[in-house]
């Protein structure tokens, strides 16, 4: 349930036109809903899908952390999160806590919507650290959900084994108690009854 906090992250990624995180958040929300349905309706296969996705989701968030901290040659100033189709950056870059956004006059060779001509000052926390905090929270929630999903799958498998064992005994006992019924030919007793009545009349 707490992993639906990705909805909040989805909103800010939409505002920042971060298409790669938007796609990841959308898939994550769908799988979380599927996992909740599997837990409520007792569908272990759905929970297993959620378990596999949790591992992928942790990997994705680790990549985002490395991206914004510029680990391993990655750079937060690239257009990787927008699939190289726009120059937008994280929404928190200009709207973080305490940030003051001021648009500078464009030069003859610039564009009005280019981030080069936007001055942001006074931010309490830099935008990359806000993105890292969001990813770290998602990793923590995913690990908790992964452990709980494994626990539910283990319990469901034990219950299925117990059910199969009891069902096997019931089938065996049913086979032992089953009696095959065969049709029986009717006994012709009409002649015997007639002879007895005649003897009584003679007497």
UniProtKB/TrEMBL annotation:
Entry superkingdom: Eukaryota
Alphabetized InterPro entries for the sequence: Na/K-Atpase_Interacting
Main location group: membrane
GO biological process, one term: regulation of sodium ion transport
Topology term for the membrane: Multi-pass membrane protein
Keyword Cytoplasm: no
GO cellular component: plasma membrane
One Pfam family from the record: NKAIN
Localisation: Cell membrane
Regions that span the bilayer: 20-40, 47-71, 132-153
Entry keyword Cell membrane: yes
Keyword line: Cell membrane, Membrane, Transmembrane, Transmembrane helix
Similarity section: Belongs to the NKAIN family.
Name this protein carries in UniProt: Sodium/potassium-transporting ATPase subunit beta-1-interacting protein
